[in-house]
Fold:
Amino acid sequence: MQPSVWQILIVAALVLVLFGRGRISEMMGDVGKGIRSFKQGITDEETSAAKPTPKIDSKTGDASAETSKTADKTAG
Structure:
């Protein structure tokens, strides 16, 4: 049994009366913010997974040792 057009209109009117037009638009704005936040989290996760991990010097265990050697060579 499918709802008729009148039944759908009655339910829609009841929802508007109970929640009000402002409250419904506020809820839709919150849903939009949640979707936007979810997409941003997915994008951040993909970019952090794509970044290479720094090389760790096996002698000192320092991740920045290789970059300081490079800086010393270029400095002089």
Summary: The helical segments are 5-50, 65-75.
